[in-house]
Write a structure and sequence with these properties.
Family: Belongs to the polypeptide deformylase family.
Oligomer: single chain
Strand order of the largest sheet: 1-2-3-6-7
CATH superfamily of the largest domain: Peptide deformylase
Distance between the termini: 46 Å
CATH architecture of the largest domain: Alpha-Beta Complex
Order of helices and strands: HEEEEEEEHH
Binding site for Fe cation: 89, 131, 135
Radius of gyration: 21 Å
Helix content: 25-40%
Pfam family, one: Pep_deformylase
Function: Removes the formyl group from the N-terminal Met of newly synthesized proteins. Requires at least a dipeptide for an efficient rate of reaction. N-terminal L-methionine is a prerequisite for activity but the enzyme has broad specificity at other positions.
Structural class: alpha+beta
GO biological process, one term: translation
Length: 193
């Protein structure tokens, strides 16, 4: 799966809820693909918009190795106690910033089978839930930190995105050129028959 990067519109859109009928085998396969993509990228969480889907779901695997799926999550309680942690994001590769968040959360959601659950979390799991839940509202972690750092990262990610788009356009141009040459050779062969 492609992981969308900061600068691509889908990361700034507010996601829509998942309808209960959408939670089926196809969606469960999609969640498994998300876990595989996240593991390959060495992440601990991945939200729908990060793979191009503006729906309210995310997946998380932290230190305990448990694969957790959150569909239509709602954070129903946060602790007054805050803690700092260096956060990174698969949509902003190569950047980290110390972000202050509540140290404990309670979240209600549906699992991958559409069954409701409530989870009280602390530590890395609580942080990941908050980080991934932010993605569902079009928020990335740098929005919660130093505005100067956010501006710098946004500018650098914009340049990366522009370079990637230029590379893709050049690849497409070359492929079209090769295809045209092949077609011309084929047409020349056909006309000689």
């Amino acid at each position: 799966m492609k992981i969308y990067k900061l600068g691509e519109d889908v990361l700034r859109q507010k996601c829509v809820p998942v309808e209960p009928a959408e939670i089926n085998d196809e969606m469960r396969n999609f969640f498994n693909e998300m876990f595989d993509t996240m593991d390959e990228a060495q992440g601990v969480g991945l939200a729908g918009p990060q793979v191009g889907v503006s729906k309210r779901f995310f997946v998380i695997t932290v230190d305990d190795g448990v694969r957790r799926v959150f569909v239509n999550p709602q954070i129903v309680h946060t602790s007054s106690e805050l803690c700092d942690y260096d956060e990174g994001c698969l949509s902003l590769p190569g950047f980290e910033e110390k972000i202050r968040r509540p140290s404990k959360v309670t979240v209600s959601a549906l699992n991958e089978f559409g069954k409701p659950f409530t989870l009280e979390a602390d530590g890395l799991l609580a942080r990941c839930i908050q980080h991934e839940n932010d993605h569902l509202d079009g928020i990335v972690y740098i929005d919660r930190g130093d505005p100067e750092f956010a501006a710098k990262v946004t500018a650098q990610m914009k340049k990366r995105l522009e370079r990637a788009q230029k590379k893709e356009a050049e690849k497409a141009r070359k492929a079209a050129s090769i295809a045209a040459k092949i077609a011309a050779k084929q047409a020349a062969k056909e006309s000689k028959k």
